[in-house]
Specification:
mainly alpha; 5 helices
């Protein structure tokens, strides 16, 4: 095996301060107002939504149109359409039943006994 040589550069205290920047000029504290000002607005969100609309998956547990619909519907307690859909489905079922009964009556009238 070969030897590995390590070189270490050492500064005395006077040279160290002159050579190495020890100030924290790269770390900046951000004020709350600066954070608020840099946060996206609702308009920014909708602009981005319009841009990404067709890239968003239709269905999925997260990051999809389905997810947006479900979470938004839950947030605003939106179930009015569900009630309307259920009422229309019941009406369709009743009309199908009546149509079947009418077709059976018609078939019975046309069939000689």
């Amino acid at each position: 095996m070969g030897d590995i040589k390590l070189n270490k550069q050492v500064f005395n205290k006077r040279d160290y301060v002159k050579t190495i920047d020890t100030s924290f000029n790269e770390l900046q504290s951000t004020t709350i107002q600066e954070l608020v000002d840099s946060s996206p607005t609702i308009q920014d969100f909708f602009n981005l939504y319009e841009e990404l609309f067709y890239e968003i998956d239709e269905l999925g547990e997260t990051n999809s149109h389905e997810y947006l619909i479900k979470t938004s519907s839950e947030y605003i307690n939106f179930d009015a359409n569900d009630e309307l859909i259920e009422a229309l489905q019941l009406e369709i079922a009743q009309l199908r039943k009546e149509l079947l009964e009418a077709q059976q009556s018609s078939a019975n009238l046309q069939t000689p006994e």
